[in-house]
Design brief:
6 strands, 54% helix, 289 residues, 4-stranded antiparallel β-sheet, two-stranded antiparallel sheet, alpha+beta, Chitinase A, domain 3
Length: 289
Protein backbone atom coordinates (compact mmCIF):
# COMPACT_ATOMS: atom_id res chain seq x y z
CA UNK A 1 0.00 0.00 0.00
CA UNK A 2 1.37 3.44 -0.92
CA UNK A 3 1.21 5.91 1.97
CA UNK A 4 1.21 9.68 1.72
CA UNK A 5 4.03 11.86 2.99
CA UNK A 6 1.69 13.38 5.58
CA UNK A 7 0.98 9.90 6.97
CA UNK A 8 4.70 9.11 7.28
CA UNK A 9 5.34 12.51 8.84
CA UNK A 10 2.54 12.00 11.40
CA UNK A 11 3.81 8.53 12.23
CA UNK A 12 7.39 9.77 12.66
CA UNK A 13 6.38 12.65 14.94
CA UNK A 14 4.08 10.61 17.18
CA UNK A 15 6.44 7.70 17.59
CA UNK A 16 9.33 10.06 18.29
CA UNK A 17 7.28 11.75 20.99
CA UNK A 18 6.55 8.47 22.75
CA UNK A 19 10.03 7.07 22.70
CA UNK A 20 11.91 10.26 23.35
CA UNK A 21 10.27 9.98 26.77
CA UNK A 22 10.91 6.25 27.23
CA UNK A 23 14.50 6.31 26.10
CA UNK A 24 15.32 9.26 28.35
CA UNK A 25 14.06 7.60 31.53
CA UNK A 26 16.89 7.51 34.10
CA UNK A 27 18.41 4.07 34.14
CA UNK A 28 16.40 3.00 31.11
CA UNK A 29 17.87 0.26 29.01
CA UNK A 30 16.59 -2.23 26.50
CA UNK A 31 15.44 -5.32 28.32
CA UNK A 32 15.87 -8.76 26.83
CA UNK A 33 12.76 -10.01 25.12
CA UNK A 34 10.44 -12.41 26.85
CA UNK A 35 8.59 -15.27 25.23
CA UNK A 36 5.39 -13.19 25.18
CA UNK A 37 7.18 -10.11 23.88
CA UNK A 38 8.85 -11.07 20.60
CA UNK A 39 11.63 -9.03 19.06
CA UNK A 40 10.94 -7.12 15.85
CA UNK A 41 14.52 -5.88 15.33
CA UNK A 42 17.81 -5.19 17.05
CA UNK A 43 19.81 -1.99 16.78
CA UNK A 44 23.42 -2.28 17.88
CA UNK A 45 22.35 -4.99 20.27
CA UNK A 46 19.27 -3.17 21.63
CA UNK A 47 15.94 -4.79 20.93
CA UNK A 48 12.78 -3.35 19.44
CA UNK A 49 9.98 -5.44 20.88
CA UNK A 50 6.32 -5.87 20.19
CA UNK A 51 5.55 -3.97 23.41
CA UNK A 52 7.44 -0.92 22.14
CA UNK A 53 5.56 -1.02 18.87
CA UNK A 54 2.22 -1.28 20.67
CA UNK A 55 3.15 1.64 22.96
CA UNK A 56 3.97 3.72 19.91
CA UNK A 57 0.61 2.85 18.37
CA UNK A 58 -1.20 4.33 21.39
CA UNK A 59 -0.15 7.81 20.28
CA UNK A 60 -1.33 7.44 16.70
CA UNK A 61 -4.66 8.92 15.55
CA UNK A 62 -7.47 6.39 15.30
CA UNK A 63 -7.41 6.31 11.50
CA UNK A 64 -3.83 5.03 11.62
CA UNK A 65 -4.33 2.61 14.51
CA UNK A 66 -7.10 0.94 12.52
CA UNK A 67 -4.75 -0.01 9.70
CA UNK A 68 -3.90 -3.73 9.51
CA UNK A 69 -0.99 -4.61 11.79
CA UNK A 70 0.88 -6.17 8.89
CA UNK A 71 1.00 -2.75 7.21
CA UNK A 72 1.44 -0.54 10.28
CA UNK A 73 4.00 -2.48 12.35
CA UNK A 74 6.80 -2.35 9.75
CA UNK A 75 6.37 1.42 9.42
CA UNK A 76 6.61 1.92 13.17
CA UNK A 77 9.63 -0.39 13.33
CA UNK A 78 11.45 1.74 10.76
CA UNK A 79 10.84 4.84 12.86
CA UNK A 80 11.97 3.09 16.04
CA UNK A 81 15.23 2.08 14.41
CA UNK A 82 15.95 5.73 13.67
CA UNK A 83 14.89 6.74 17.18
CA UNK A 84 17.16 4.14 18.79
CA UNK A 85 20.13 5.27 16.73
CA UNK A 86 19.73 8.98 17.41
CA UNK A 87 18.81 8.43 21.06
CA UNK A 88 22.06 6.53 21.52
CA UNK A 89 23.95 9.47 20.04
CA UNK A 90 22.04 11.83 22.32
CA UNK A 91 22.99 9.75 25.35
CA UNK A 92 26.66 9.90 24.38
CA UNK A 93 26.59 13.71 24.37
CA UNK A 94 24.92 13.88 27.79
CA UNK A 95 21.27 14.36 26.92
CA UNK A 96 20.15 11.66 29.34
CA UNK A 97 20.64 14.16 32.18
CA UNK A 98 19.55 17.24 30.25
CA UNK A 99 17.11 19.32 32.38
CA UNK A 100 14.74 19.61 29.43
CA UNK A 101 14.41 15.83 29.36
CA UNK A 102 14.39 15.20 33.09
CA UNK A 103 11.61 17.72 33.74
CA UNK A 104 9.44 16.09 31.10
CA UNK A 105 10.17 12.58 32.36
CA UNK A 106 9.11 13.62 35.87
CA UNK A 107 5.95 15.30 34.62
CA UNK A 108 4.82 12.45 32.37
CA UNK A 109 5.70 9.83 34.98
CA UNK A 110 3.44 11.72 37.40
CA UNK A 111 0.69 11.95 34.82
CA UNK A 112 0.90 8.25 34.00
CA UNK A 113 0.73 7.34 37.69
CA UNK A 114 -2.40 9.48 37.95
CA UNK A 115 -3.97 7.96 34.86
CA UNK A 116 -3.37 4.35 35.88
CA UNK A 117 -4.54 4.95 39.43
CA UNK A 118 -7.66 6.68 38.09
CA UNK A 119 -8.23 3.69 35.82
CA UNK A 120 -8.02 1.40 38.86
CA UNK A 121 -10.61 3.51 40.71
CA UNK A 122 -13.00 3.37 37.78
CA UNK A 123 -12.47 -0.35 37.32
CA UNK A 124 -13.20 -0.98 41.00
CA UNK A 125 -16.39 1.04 41.35
CA UNK A 126 -17.96 1.43 37.92
CA UNK A 127 -20.15 -1.66 37.67
CA UNK A 128 -23.49 -2.55 36.07
CA UNK A 129 -25.41 -1.53 39.18
CA UNK A 130 -23.92 1.96 39.15
CA UNK A 131 -24.56 2.26 35.41
CA UNK A 132 -28.22 1.35 35.81
CA UNK A 133 -28.58 3.69 38.77
CA UNK A 134 -27.13 6.51 36.67
CA UNK A 135 -29.45 5.67 33.76
CA UNK A 136 -32.52 5.73 35.99
CA UNK A 137 -31.45 9.13 37.32
CA UNK A 138 -30.98 10.29 33.73
CA UNK A 139 -34.51 9.13 32.88
CA UNK A 140 -35.89 10.94 35.93
CA UNK A 141 -34.32 14.21 34.77
CA UNK A 142 -35.15 13.76 31.09
CA UNK A 143 -37.38 16.63 29.94
CA UNK A 144 -40.40 14.91 28.40
CA UNK A 145 -42.06 18.23 27.63
CA UNK A 146 -43.10 19.78 24.35
CA UNK A 147 -40.44 21.34 22.18
CA UNK A 148 -41.10 23.64 19.26
CA UNK A 149 -38.91 24.40 16.29
CA UNK A 150 -38.97 28.17 16.49
CA UNK A 151 -37.70 30.93 14.24
CA UNK A 152 -37.93 34.64 14.87
CA UNK A 153 -37.07 38.03 13.44
CA UNK A 154 -35.79 40.48 16.04
CA UNK A 155 -35.99 44.22 15.40
CA UNK A 156 -35.62 47.33 17.53
CA UNK A 157 -39.13 48.82 17.36
CA UNK A 158 -42.77 47.88 17.05
CA UNK A 159 -43.00 49.86 13.83
CA UNK A 160 -40.24 47.78 12.24
CA UNK A 161 -41.92 44.58 13.44
CA UNK A 162 -45.21 45.63 11.86
CA UNK A 163 -43.43 46.27 8.56
CA UNK A 164 -41.91 42.78 8.73
CA UNK A 165 -45.33 41.25 9.38
CA UNK A 166 -46.79 43.16 6.42
CA UNK A 167 -44.05 41.87 4.11
CA UNK A 168 -44.62 38.31 5.30
CA UNK A 169 -48.37 38.64 4.67
CA UNK A 170 -47.66 39.53 1.05
CA UNK A 171 -45.66 36.32 0.58
CA UNK A 172 -42.11 37.20 1.61
CA UNK A 173 -40.06 34.22 2.80
CA UNK A 174 -39.54 34.20 6.57
CA UNK A 175 -35.91 33.03 6.45
CA UNK A 176 -34.97 35.64 3.86
CA UNK A 177 -36.61 38.39 5.91
CA UNK A 178 -34.73 37.22 8.99
CA UNK A 179 -31.39 37.32 7.19
CA UNK A 180 -32.12 40.80 5.83
CA UNK A 181 -33.73 42.52 8.80
CA UNK A 182 -33.22 40.63 12.05
CA UNK A 183 -30.66 42.02 14.50
CA UNK A 184 -30.56 38.80 16.51
CA UNK A 185 -27.65 36.31 16.41
CA UNK A 186 -29.84 33.76 14.62
CA UNK A 187 -30.24 36.01 11.55
CA UNK A 188 -27.60 34.16 9.45
CA UNK A 189 -29.55 30.94 10.06
CA UNK A 190 -32.77 32.50 8.76
CA UNK A 191 -33.88 33.28 12.30
CA UNK A 192 -33.90 29.61 13.34
CA UNK A 193 -33.54 28.98 17.07
CA UNK A 194 -33.99 25.22 16.76
CA UNK A 195 -36.12 23.11 19.08
CA UNK A 196 -36.79 24.84 22.39
CA UNK A 197 -38.79 24.12 25.52
CA UNK A 198 -41.02 26.75 27.08
CA UNK A 199 -38.68 27.30 30.02
CA UNK A 200 -35.78 28.08 27.69
CA UNK A 201 -37.27 31.37 26.51
CA UNK A 202 -38.64 34.41 28.29
CA UNK A 203 -42.31 34.22 29.25
CA UNK A 204 -43.64 36.86 26.82
CA UNK A 205 -41.97 35.01 23.95
CA UNK A 206 -43.13 31.57 25.20
CA UNK A 207 -46.77 32.62 25.51
CA UNK A 208 -46.91 33.38 21.80
CA UNK A 209 -44.52 30.74 20.43
CA UNK A 210 -46.28 27.88 22.22
CA UNK A 211 -49.73 29.04 21.15
CA UNK A 212 -48.98 29.23 17.41
CA UNK A 213 -50.01 26.57 14.93
CA UNK A 214 -47.29 25.13 12.74
CA UNK A 215 -46.24 27.63 10.02
CA UNK A 216 -48.39 30.39 11.56
CA UNK A 217 -46.70 33.80 11.93
CA UNK A 218 -47.23 35.97 14.99
CA UNK A 219 -47.81 39.68 15.25
CA UNK A 220 -45.18 41.87 16.97
CA UNK A 221 -44.14 40.51 20.38
CA UNK A 222 -42.18 42.67 22.83
CA UNK A 223 -39.58 41.27 25.24
CA UNK A 224 -36.58 42.72 27.03
CA UNK A 225 -34.54 42.05 23.88
CA UNK A 226 -36.71 44.04 21.48
CA UNK A 227 -39.61 43.23 19.15
CA UNK A 228 -40.05 39.76 17.68
CA UNK A 229 -41.97 38.23 14.84
CA UNK A 230 -42.24 34.50 15.53
CA UNK A 231 -43.09 31.39 13.57
CA UNK A 232 -43.09 27.69 14.46
CA UNK A 233 -42.41 24.94 11.91
CA UNK A 234 -42.78 21.82 14.04
CA UNK A 235 -43.50 20.54 17.54
CA UNK A 236 -42.50 17.35 19.29
CA UNK A 237 -42.26 15.65 22.66
CA UNK A 238 -38.84 13.99 22.86
CA UNK A 239 -38.61 10.35 23.89
CA UNK A 240 -35.88 9.32 26.31
CA UNK A 241 -33.10 7.35 24.59
CA UNK A 242 -32.55 3.68 25.29
CA UNK A 243 -29.72 2.70 27.63
CA UNK A 244 -27.46 1.61 24.76
CA UNK A 245 -27.75 5.07 23.17
CA UNK A 246 -26.36 6.88 26.22
CA UNK A 247 -24.21 4.16 27.76
CA UNK A 248 -20.86 5.59 26.67
CA UNK A 249 -21.83 9.11 27.73
CA UNK A 250 -22.98 7.91 31.15
CA UNK A 251 -19.86 5.77 31.55
CA UNK A 252 -17.62 8.76 30.87
CA UNK A 253 -19.58 10.97 33.27
CA UNK A 254 -19.42 8.39 36.07
CA UNK A 255 -15.70 7.84 35.50
CA UNK A 256 -15.05 11.59 35.72
CA UNK A 257 -17.10 11.81 38.90
CA UNK A 258 -15.36 8.86 40.56
CA UNK A 259 -11.92 10.30 39.86
CA UNK A 260 -12.98 13.79 40.94
CA UNK A 261 -14.46 12.44 44.18
CA UNK A 262 -11.26 10.52 44.89
CA UNK A 263 -9.20 13.68 44.43
CA UNK A 264 -11.55 15.64 46.71
CA UNK A 265 -11.14 12.97 49.38
CA UNK A 266 -7.36 13.20 49.16
CA UNK A 267 -7.50 16.99 49.42
CA UNK A 268 -9.15 16.70 52.84
CA UNK A 269 -6.03 15.16 54.38
CA UNK A 270 -3.43 16.89 52.22
CA UNK A 271 -1.32 19.89 53.20
CA UNK A 272 -1.84 22.30 50.32
CA UNK A 273 -0.46 25.81 50.19
CA UNK A 274 -1.12 28.04 47.20
CA UNK A 275 0.80 31.17 46.34
CA UNK A 276 -0.11 34.26 44.33
CA UNK A 277 0.44 34.01 40.60
CA UNK A 278 0.92 37.65 39.71
CA UNK A 279 2.37 39.24 36.61
CA UNK A 280 5.92 38.34 37.65
CA UNK A 281 4.93 34.70 37.87
CA UNK A 282 3.91 34.62 34.22
CA UNK A 283 6.64 36.93 32.96
CA UNK A 284 8.73 34.93 30.52
CA UNK A 285 6.69 31.81 31.19
CA UNK A 286 7.90 29.41 28.52
CA UNK A 287 8.93 25.78 28.53
CA UNK A 288 12.39 25.07 27.19
CA UNK A 289 12.04 23.44 23.76
Amino acid sequence: MKLSGSYRQTTRWLVSLAFALLISLPGWHSASAQDDNPVAATVNGETITRTEILLAMELLPAQFRNLPAAQLFPLIREQLIDIKLLAAKGTKVGLRNDPRILSRVDFYAMRLAHDYYARDIVGKYLDDELMQESYQKFLGNFPETEERNISHILVASEEEAEKVVAELETGAEFAAMARNFSVGPSAPQGGSLGYLRREQVVEEFAEVAFALENDEVSGPVQTQFGWHVITVSDSRTPVAPEFAQVEQKLRAEIADRLVSDAAKQERQDAEIEMFDMDEDFFDGATVAP
